[in-house]
Amino acid sequence: MHDKATLERLYRSLYRIRRVEEEVARAYPTDKIKSPVHLSIGQESISVGACEALRPDDVAFGTYRSHALYLARGGNLPAMIAELYGKATGCAKGKGGSMHLIAPDVNVMGASAVVGTTIPHAVGYAYALKLRQTDRVVLCMFGDGATEEGVFYESLNYASLKQLPIIFLCENNGYAIHTHVLRRQLLANLCDRAKSFNIPAEQIADGDVLKVRERMQAVVAGVRAGQGPYFLECFTYRWKEHVGPGEDWQLGYRTATEAEPWKQNDQVPRLAGLLAEADRDRVHREVEAEITAAFHFAEQSPFPAPAELWEHVYQ
Amino acid sequence: MSHERIISYVDAVREATEQEMARDPNVLVFGLDVDDPKAIQGTTKGLLEKFGPDRVFGTPLSEDAMTGAAIGMALAGVRPIHVHIRMDFLMLAMNQLVNIAAKYHYMYGGAMAVPLVVRGMIGKSWGQGAQHSQALYSFFMHVPGLKVVAPTTPYDAKGCLIAAIRDDNPVIYIEHRLLHFQKGPVPAEPYTVNPGKARVAIAGTDVTLVGISNMQLECLRAARYLEEKGVSAEVIDPIWLAPLDIATIVASARKTKRLIVVDNDWTNCGASAEIVAQVAEQSPGVQVRRMGYAPVTCPPSPTLEDQYYANGRTIAAAAFDLVSGKPQHWLPAERADLKQIEFKGPF
After folding, report:
1. Fold agreement between B7-185 and B199-323
2. CB pair distance less than 8 Å for A125 and B147
3. CA–CA dist A299, A314 (Å, integer)
4. Catalytic residue among B15, B18, B20, B63
5. Which residues does chain A have within 8 Å of residue B100's beta carbon, measured at their own beta carbons?
6. pLDDT tens per residue across all 315 residues of chain A
7. Which CATH class is domain B199-323?
8. Which stretches within A149-244 are classed as H helix?
9. Fold of A4-301
10. What are the residue boundaries of the structural domains of chain A, listed by start?
11. CA B50 – CA B22 distance, rounded (Å)
């Protein structure tokens, strides 16, 4: 069984990401958010479960849909909101935006808008860790769309060849923008492909945050012990439109019915139900206060000075 | 006197790599064939034995992922040198170089840097045809955040490579295969030839010739041919193409009033176009001309290939026309004494 502190920590993280994303969606129509947002609502449990298994000195790489990863890993919330607002206090000084979150202080490397591009970064980072004979590991998160990019296979091959300390974690939400995975791939047998590189692989079908955490803990232990790369395919579901704050059932490429099982299985209320009411209320109060403060911070922060345009072209 | 030591461009590249790898354990070198018996024309010879397979290694044929991996290594504090024996194959790495390496420092607000050297070999085709001869470095000059260097002398080959390795930014290091055989004075100790300074290789008064990469050699030849007509050419080697030392070129062009930029590349949207445009913006009175590849795909057959490239004689003819103010229909006879120009110091 899970102890009370663990359940509260998991719930706090899930609830915090959900509520941050809802507030982002709420603020979006005001035009104060200055970059396109790819919300994590519905997919929180994968990042939360996965990051629970990491040590602070492990390293994570994500995608343009990385609000959840950034927050689950401990990225600074006010700096994230300020980044969305294009403010000088943002995690990338207002020069990245929602798709390019970064938090080196908690070992979250830069997210990229071009699908699949951070996969080899994670592999290279893992090579450096192995070169230095550390027991740190790399978490490499990407979506099902990235598994159609050539670089994915090149990266699996190299990680396997060098037996690198890396966990490939595919957040399979079934869609690349509006196109279902089975309209893009005949079989979508991702684990089989990983296994063909001699990389052990498994699926987690239901987004169960406790299961993701438990499996990740076992996987990370093996990778940390030098057993080489591992592939995890975590099914999940995106509740909102591909980009933007709204829903998109009206487009007709998917149905609200399809989302029903995922909403029934929503990990946020599930974990809430495992906490005592007083604890849950306290988490809510604390998280709401934190979010209010973060949006206030972003509102009050200055935009970058004009001269900032010319900064950071070169180191 | 260490400055008297004469070594080849290949040995200068090899020595720079070896000295930097010895100085800094974070420096490593990888790419297709860097650890094979031919050792990239000898530029990586002996490194595997000295530094071991974790720091000197060949790779799968995965330019995209290995460029991304180099970026990932750089994020972890490694200083990778990624070697490509043919520049043409860098097209498979463009996403990582243009979308990631060039932008990492800026896009994340200065939070991280990508100290990465990408060595790309280019060449006069010598029969190698369409996909083994291209320069393509102007692609990289176009993108803010990348540095581009095309050293032409053994001295610069060493100094620029050491500067590139120590640079905290991604540097595209361009080597022309014909230059590999050049010999010249190279100090034994490590030194840097840093971005931002072109070199006046020959001082002159009548026309400025800017020769990029191997075309520097052809411009040196052209200057000698032009002596036959009493024309004094000033020859400039830009060395670093990004950032570009345009001030040295502008100063020369203002003095001579005439500028020919000769590139080892197509002129269209190339380095020559950029240099001429910047000179024209800063010094409107200068007469300008560009020379480069014929605007076609590189053919392997020698009769076609000979027309494809500029050479010392055609450059001299163009310069003489420019200085004369009208077509002179002069093409110097090829001189045996200019066939083997080697770079002479000191620089």
Report:
1. yes
2. no
3. 29
4. B63
5. 112, 114, 117, 121
6. 689 999 999 999 999 999 999 999 999 999 999 889 999 999 999 999 999 999 999 999 999 999 999 999 999 999 999 999 999 999 999 999 999 999 999 999 999 999 999 999 999 999 999 999 999 999 999 999 999 999 999 999 999 999 999 999 999 999 999 999 999 999 999 999 999 999 999 999 999 999 999 999 999 999 999 999 999 999 999 999 999 999 999 999 999 999 999 999 999 999 999 999 999 999 999 999 999 999 999 999 999 999 999 999 999
7. alpha beta
8. 150-162, 190-196, 209-224
9. Rossmann fold (3.40.50)
10. 4-301
11. 9
Distance from CA of A251 to the nearest CA of B (A): 31
What is the distance between the terminal CA atoms of chain A, rounded to a whole angstrom? 49
- ∠ CA(B131), CA(B133), CA(B137), 5° rounding? 100
pTM (predicted TM-score): 0.96
Catalytic one of B82, B84, B132, B176: B132
Q: How far is A11 from chain B (nearest CA, A)?
A: 30
CA distance A213 to A219: 10
Contact A100 B107 (CB under 8 A): yes
Residues of chain B with pLDDT under 50: 1-2, 346-347
**Å from A310 to nearest chain B CA?**
9
Contact at CB, B76 and A313, closer than 8 angstroms: no
Q: Check residue B128 and give its pLDDT.
A: 83
B7-185: what CATH class?
alpha beta
Whether residues B72 and A112 touch (CB distance < 8 A) is answered with no
Closest by CA to A180, choosing from A267, A65, A258, A260, is A258
Summarised one tens digit per residue, pLDDT across range B76-109 is 999 999 999 999 999 999 999 999 999 999 999 9
Q: Return the domain boundaries, chain B.
A: 7-185, 199-323
Q: Is B3 a catalytic residue?
A: no
Residue of A151, A156, A158, A310 for testing the chain B interface, max B β-carbons within 10 Å? A151
The beta strands (E) that lie in B10-153 are given as: 27-30, 56-57, 79-84, 116-122, 147-149
By Cβ distance, the residue of A126, A158, A314 closest to B62 is A158
Q: Quote the CA–CA distance of A227 and A244 in Å, as a whole number.
A: 40
